[in-house]
Design the sequence.
């Protein structure tokens, strides 16, 4: 009797685990896919992918993609799309170059002016989408052409640079080590010549915060009787995430420490994750993309909310433009060309739905990293840009097919 009961309990537990995995396949699948892709390229590149200098380059090369992906996710969740982000990014970089190099405007004034320009651009496009009901595809396609031409006009078809060191620090700068004793202690244990103590402390604090936050949410769900993630899944996910963070931070700490852009990305990711998951504004954006008419009938100011998503996208595209120009140390007429495709692909690969109302900030970041690791790994292997485009296109198609399949299965 006891054995039968135990068997039935195990069977029920197994079914629950499979059911939970099926319902959250996209989230776990993304994490597994990123790890598998990194391990694959680590093997085929003979360990080059995860060397400290290359990990640093991965963050520097993909910082502007990730920053714009945060804004693009909100636009897509709200039921729209923005095709102009690459051109806006290039235009803002061109504006910064002209202001600093040719007009001798101070860096601080230039940065604030360029960010304001991005907000104005987002507001201009959002106005036509939100208040005139012109499809976002058309408005932002026009914006893409307008700002690509504006960049050519502003730069007069030539590259402008270089920038002063203070501006380059936006992208290529590193946070100074404020805790050398911790780095020295870790160096003594690991045998490395020099370890950045501040980088390791940030990694440890990040891991502790993630675990504490997860346990807090589980306790809240249990108190309210909400079915939560199975314990085995929770433990496995946190072990993998914590291990990955500590590994990457350790690698960075043995090179030059934490890049400035990594701090910028981390802070922005936390802010936007909090907004989308914990605030009324975030819930309204999801409601807007899920069913616009129902959202309007429930009292949500859909026009104003749509307008806000484009203003936010313009701001983040401007920030990405400044970081991109600082990294290149010059502004070129072709900067940002077709970059909007990588941003949109990262968001869709990260789990966002084409119809709106579905998607997470963390998913967009992971999707951007998947694209970045693929780009970096294929470049190390010497794969031509033609084949790279084909492979990225197939990955995007697979992500969309998976999304459609999941919807049909759940329906």
Sequence:
């Amino acid at each position: 009797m006891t054995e039968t009961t135990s068997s039935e309990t195990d069977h029920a537990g197994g079914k629950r685990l499979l059911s939970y995995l099926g319902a959250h396949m996209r989230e776990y699948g993304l994490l597994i896919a990123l790890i598998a892709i990194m391990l694959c390229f680590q093997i085929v590149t003979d360990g080059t992918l995860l060397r400290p200098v290359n990990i640093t380059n991965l963050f520097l090369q993909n910082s502007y993609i990730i920053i714009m992906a945060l804004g693009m996710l909100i636009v897509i969740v709200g039921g729209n799309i923005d095709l102009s982000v690459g051109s806006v990014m290039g235009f803002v970089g061109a504006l910064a170059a002209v202001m600093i190099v040719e007009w001798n405007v101070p860096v601080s004034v230039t940065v604030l002016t360029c960010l304001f320009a991005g907000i104005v651009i987002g507001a201009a496009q959002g106005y036509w989408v939100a208040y005139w009901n012109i499809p976002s595809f058309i408005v932002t396609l026009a914006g893409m052409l307008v700002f690509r031409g504006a960049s050519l006009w502003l730069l007069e078809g030539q590259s402008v640079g270089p920038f002063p060191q203070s501006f380059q620090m936006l992208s290529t700068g590193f946070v100074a080590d404020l805790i050398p004793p911790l780095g020295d202690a870790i160096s003594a244990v690991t045998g490395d010549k020099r370890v950045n103590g501040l980088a390791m402390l940030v990694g440890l604090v990040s891991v502790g915060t993630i675990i504490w936050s997860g346990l807090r949410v589980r306790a809240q769900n249990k108190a309210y009787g909400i079915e939560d993630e199975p314990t085995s899944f929770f433990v496995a996910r946190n072990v993998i995430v914590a291990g990955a963070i500590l590994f990457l931070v350790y690698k960075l700490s043995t090179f030059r420490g934490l890049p400035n852009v990594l701090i910028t990305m981390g802070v922005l990711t936390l802010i936007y994750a909090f907004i989308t998951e914990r605030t009324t504004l975030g819930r309204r954006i999801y409601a807007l993309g899920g069913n616009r008419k129902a959202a309007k009938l429930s009292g949500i100011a859909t026009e104003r909310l749509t307008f806000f998503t484009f203003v936010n996208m313009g701001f983040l595209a401007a920030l990405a433009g400044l970081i991109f120009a600082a990294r290149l140390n010059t502004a070129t007429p072709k900067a940002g060309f077709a970059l909007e495709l990588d941003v949109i692909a990262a968001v869709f690969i990260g789990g966002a739905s084409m119809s709106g109302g579905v998607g997470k900030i963390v998913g967009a970041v992971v999707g951007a990293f998947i694209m970045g690791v693929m780009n970096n790994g294929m470049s190390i292997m010497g794969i031509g840009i033609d084949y790279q485009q084909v492979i990225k296109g197939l990955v995007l198609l697979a992500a969309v097919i998976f999304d459609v399949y999941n919807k049909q299965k759940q329906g």
Remarks:
- DSSP finds 17 helices and no strands in the chain.
- The two ends are 39 Å apart (CA to CA).
- Residues 155 and 220 are 55 Å apart (CA to CA).
- The chain has a mean pLDDT of 86.
